[in-house]
Amino acid sequence: MRKEDDNIKHISFYSGLIQTVGYDPQRALLEVRLANDEKVRQYRNVPEDTWYHLRGSSYPDVYYRRYICGRYAEFILSGEPA
């Protein structure tokens, strides 16, 4: 369980796959909540430019699958809101 000060602020995402995303640049942590199971997936050591590319992508689902899944270690945190 995360401490309150460890929470990363998530923003809603207009995507069929992704429900919300959040990024902490100080810790290089990316969090993604998928729409199908609502679990938060955390990716560590994600460069800030990867976050900006995901956030600005016209096809975020494709970007997520191609450039994040399998490239960074994935940790499933919970199904609770971030």
What string, H for helix and E for strand, traces the elements in order?
EEEEHHE
How much is the radius of gyration in Å? Answer: 12 Å
Shape: globular
Largest sheet at a glance?
5 strands, antiparallel
Q: What portion of residues belong to β-strands?
A: 25-35%
* Mean pLDDT over all positions: 88
Fraction of residues in H or I helices? 10-25%
Distance between the termini: 11 Å
In words, what does this structure look like?
This protein is α+β, with helices and mostly antiparallel strands. The protein contains two helices and five strands; from the N terminus they run E-E-E-E-H-H-E. A five-stranded antiparallel sheet has the order 1-2-3-4-5, with helices on one face. Helix 1 (48-56) packs antiparallel against helix 2.
In short:
With 82 residues, the chain is α+β, with helices and mostly antiparallel strands.
Topology at a glance:
Elements: E1 10-12, E2 18-24, E3 29-34, E4 40-44, H1 48-56, H2 60-67, E5 74-78
Antiparallel strand pairs: 1-2, 2-3, 3-4, 4-5
Helix pairs in contact: 1-2
Please name the defining characteristics of this protein.
2 helices; disordered N terminus; five-stranded antiparallel β-sheet; 5 strands; 82 residues; single chain; alpha+beta; globular
